[in-house]
Specification:
Oligomer: homodimer
Structural class of chain A: alpha/beta
Number of domains of chain A: 2
Strand content of chain A: 15-25%
CATH topology of the largest domain in chain A: Aldehyde Dehydrogenase, Chain A, domain 1
Largest interface: A-B, 64 and 65 residues
Distance between the termini of chain A: 58 Å
Number of helices of chain A: 14
């Protein structure tokens, strides 16, 4: 055990040393490294897939479920996709070196802020091995060193991928030490990593709600917490029913396992009788299980005898729950105020939407709802760095400090004040 | 004890409730409240000074030193100054509601970020009662509720000032509960306050290095740590000696008790023999005690017999020390690299300066030194929100997360993403 912790500490120190040089690399060097990584993900497919096969074999032996196994598997298509994602990051502008808020003060001094990397980013994640590449690449592009701690179940894949990333990066001029993978799968290392303040500047945990909470509560350094989405869509009384069906259908069904998928549908009582049967039929066709409050249950029960519709009464525990599956709660409300009040009580502050043709209702909702992403007339599924035009993301923050919503390259940076004078002294 | 903690919890809840309404107040309402506070600081002088007199009497009885006592004292002049500071905040633009990074995406959705308050700011501070007003006013202007925890020695002054702030604010339309002062001076309350995550969104500690460290290590919520400045000024070999004397003199002497004052003077060996006697005479005239490394001691010793010069050899503990008084360390270096290396080792990441006429040296220093504020040819004493054009500050951050350097109104905010669509769904 002592050895694994010492190794972690020494990797941390190596990352810190590398981070100081990384901060001053040219965009050209960083992009060359990324292109080399993108190429190698394709050209070294055999090596990567062999390692992944080992993980998959062990996972099957250990009885891993199909959903988890699917997240673990790599293949030609997925590697090509990963390579494309890396290339997409190359085409993004380098965030480092941007100068902003610059001005000449009355005393002639020039004052401005210059964007700099945070330093060393730590990340702790589970199963999906693509995270190893995604986060490494975003950290390198933003001038940060990175310490990766993947899940035990993907250790061979992560080791192979990190090897590819490291070799390509260092051959392209990235300082050695900039990409560190913790190879020991000892769980005690996570606890130690959380205490490495002064070495790790920012920690990005990815995983389930309990794990994120554990990291937030125990980490000594700043953490970007997020990824937990209890998302509401409110269908207002002045509504285009077809739009409202399309938006709620998309928000629930397009990818139900992710954080920006719909969990609760709120419907104004004036349109509930018209709207609910429409969306219930669409959702029912693809197997969505609907947990209904009393009023929506009253409306949907008569059509609930259709064999494909799963319509059941909601329990108290259903509200404020993130389902990550084809389950949704439905509630009828009598006003915009009631909808906003329900969201204020149960939201996780991730993504919330209103569907309305009423201008004032839309404006009030956008103004009053306190969440990372607030929508009028669009699916909450859009909450994503790529979709918002950030090009890529390392995660989605539901906290207000530092950055909120999708975290792109800029959110992995800080700034320093640069003051250029000509002998000025303070009077 | 139980009662005091219950009272703290209930004040926290009241602040949270108020913060939700505060977030949507017009700039006009907030500015009206601030103007009313500025007026009352003058018109209610008798009431405030009577309370302050009580603190000062108790302080004298308890044997408080003159320097501490001076920080505690209020008088007509200081109240007028505080009122002027409040008026200056009125004239700053409201940070809330600013929309930035907005764009129309290819699918027609409009996406942008809208600036919102953080919520509830907690602050823990010592002696100087003006902090009660300064921080309250900056929080209100930025739409945040505030929980104030001043020092035991200023409790009567803080209570009187908070009463003025609250009464003026609530009469002007600020929601009741927005400004909370913890009146119990029980030290256990600080420990409890540090755990009030979910109630307090950001904690701003003001005080000595040990206290700040205690808060950073123990607070459950984000903390803006800073205010500790081990500041270096490096006099390069290509230098205008008069500028270098003026800058180092100002940085050390203009206000030696604050965090942006000079602690260490680094001098290139090529100019040390010319420069050091000049600055030593100027500093000596006002009583600066100089702790010299071997080489600078060798240069200054011959003139050190002058009775007004306090020139003594530096000890190992002198480097990286924040003196907050008329003490400076002096070291001769042989290169810009050695100067940057020394700063990297001993800096607290606050304010660092180079004095040079050499363009490349200035650029390298600005580029490579990692601190909140990096100067070429100006005094580090300028590190201040007011001086940088932010209008005011709640503190100076030496961390990289969220905000760095002087924290103005904008640094007390977060943002939310606003997405306006017309029925868009994710393909």
């Amino acid at each position: 055990m002592l050895t694994a912790i010492e190794e972690l500490e020494s990797k941390g120190q190596a990352a810190r040393v590398a981070s100081r040089r990384l901060a001053h690399l040219s965009a050209e060097t960083k992009d060359r490294a990324l292109l080399s990584i993108a190429d190698a993900l394709v050209s070294r497919e055999a090596e990567i897939l062999a390692a992944n096969q080992q993980d998959c074999n062990e996972a099957k032996v250990s009885g891993m479920g199909d959903a988890m196994l699917d997240r673990l598997v790599l293949n030609h298509e997925r590697l090509t996709g990963m390579a494309q994602d890396v290339s997409a990051v190359v085409s993004l502008p380098d965030p480092i070196g941007e100068i902003f808020d610059a001005r000449i003060l009355p005393n002639g001094m020039q004052v401005g802020r210059r964007r700099v990397p945070l330093g060393v980013i730590g990340t702790i994640y589970e199963s999906r091995p693509n995270v190893t590449v995604d986060i490494s690449v975003l950290c390198l592009k933003s001038g940060n060193a990175v310490i990766l701690r993947g899940g035990r179940e993907a250790i061979h894949s992560n080791t192979a991928l990190a090897k590819v990333v490291r070799e390509c990066a260092y051959q392209s001029g990235i300082p050695e030490g900039a990409v560190q993978l913790i190879e020991s799968t000892d769980r005690a290392l996570v606890g130690h990593m959380l205490k490495m303040k002064g070495v790790i500047d920012l920690l990005i945990p990815r995983g389930g709600a309990e794990f994120i909470k554990f990291v937030v509560d125990n980490a000594a350094m700043p953490v970007v917490a997020g990824g937990i989405g209890v998302c509401h869509t409110y269908v207002d009384k002045d509504v285009d029913l077809d739009k409202a069906v399309a938006i709620a259908y998309n928000a629930k069904v397009q990818r139900p396992t992710v954080c920006n998928a719909l969990d609760t549908l709120l419907v104004h009582s004036k349109v509930a009788a018209d709207y609910l049967p429409k969306i219930a039929r669409e959702w029912g066709n693809v197997g969505v299980e609907m947990h209904c409050d009393e009023r929506s249950f009253g409306i949907l029960k008569p059509i609930g005898h259709l064999p494909e519709l799963k319509i059941i009464p909601a329990t108290d525990e259903d509200w404020g729950k993130e389902f990550l599956s084809l389950v949704a709660t439905i509630k009828v409300v009598d006003s915009l105020d009631e909808a906003i009040g329900h969201i204020e009580r149960y939201s996780s502050g991730h993504s919330e939407a209103i569907v309305t043709e009423n201008y004032s209702a839309a404006m009030r909702f956008l103004d009053e709802v306190d969440a990372a992403c607030v929508y009028a007339n669009a699916s909450t599924r859009f909450t994503d760095g790529g979709q918002f035009g950030l090009g890529a993301e390392v995660g989605i923050s539901t906290q207000k400090f530092h950055a909120r919503g999708p975290l792109g390259l800029r959110e992995l940076t800080s700034y320093k004040w640069i003051i250029q004078g000509n002998g000025q002294v303070r009077p």
